[in-house]
Amino acid sequence: MSSGPRISFGDFSFDAESGELRRGGEAIALQILPGRVLAALVARPGELVTRAELADALWGAGTHVDAEAGLHTAVAKLREALHDSAESPRFVQTVPRRGYRFIARIGSDLPVPGADPVRPDPVAALVQSPTWRRKILLVAVVVFLAVLAAGYFGTGRRTRVAVILFDNETGRTEWTPVAQSLTDSTVERLAANPQVEVIGNATELSTARPFRDLAAIAKHLSAQYVVIGQIQAADGGVRLMNHLVRGSDLVHLWAEPRALPASAGEVEESRIADEVAAHILRSIAPARPAKNEL
């Protein structure tokens, strides 16, 4: 159930706070990154939103991802959900080499009888929402705890992890955007940990698997660990196989299969990225000092 003010356009309505998209009352599947793109665009209808601004909205400043490819995939999935077209856009217009613009007329689900139609300010509505204020408070608490954790573990070098672009080995092109999105989401989750330094946008991380040199990647990027992901056809279905490799000697610390839905459009990328990142962080977490050493 949505919890924030809804924004309507065409025959769609969108809750920018929860990311819920509906068409004629029917929920439309919208993954987290395309939802963030839509929220950023409808907050400034008719205005150019640059690629840099959208990259910050998707991943935050300072996160190492292949922003160009990730943004392209997120916009493509948003257009798919809206049944929109880059060539004849009704909602999302591409401004070549600069960014995107939301061109549809924004309306409100709750008009005031007898009042002139007024374009809502989605940003102001979100900030005034009690749920949004709770989220801001939660973020403040998380930041405070992160600062405490940084002081607890000292100011030593962070663990450096390289995330290679996940491979689509199914032979089906519809899984390629899923592979890209799962890679980006995993990088995002790992980057949220203050003890981890993540590299996800280096050129060599996008090298095709037959030409990939893990030893050279780990050495060039000074990566202590390398993460690999493979989307594969298996047992009549589809699975994601993740590997964690130690950079110093290329020892496989673990390889973990995870079943995926048969349809690329049904993949819960946010949940899967959470699970993969959590497993990685458990494996690379530094040992805590004993109490008598504090």
Task: For this entry, give a set of tags.
single chain; 294 residues; alpha+beta; five-stranded antiparallel β-sheet; 23% strand
Please explain how this structure is put together.
The chain is α+β, with helices and mostly antiparallel strands and 294 residues long. Residues 109-120 and 287-294 have low confidence and may be disordered. The longest helix is centred in the middle third of the chain and has 24 residues, at 130-153. Helices cover 36% and strands 23% of the residues. The N and C termini lie far apart (46 Å).
Please compute the radius of gyration using only Cα atoms: 21 Å
The portion of residues forming beta strands comes to 15-25%
| Annotation field: number of helices | 8
Based on secondary structure, the structural category is: alpha+beta
The count of β-strands is 14
Helix content: 25-40%
What can be said about the biggest beta sheet?
6 strands, mixed
Give the N-terminus to C-terminus distance in angstroms.
46 Å
Q: Overall 3D geometry? A: globular
Q: What is the N-to-C succession of helices and strands?
A: EEEEHEHHEEEHHEEHEHEEEH
Mean pLDDT: 80
Low-confidence runs of at least 5 consecutive residues: 109-120, 287-294
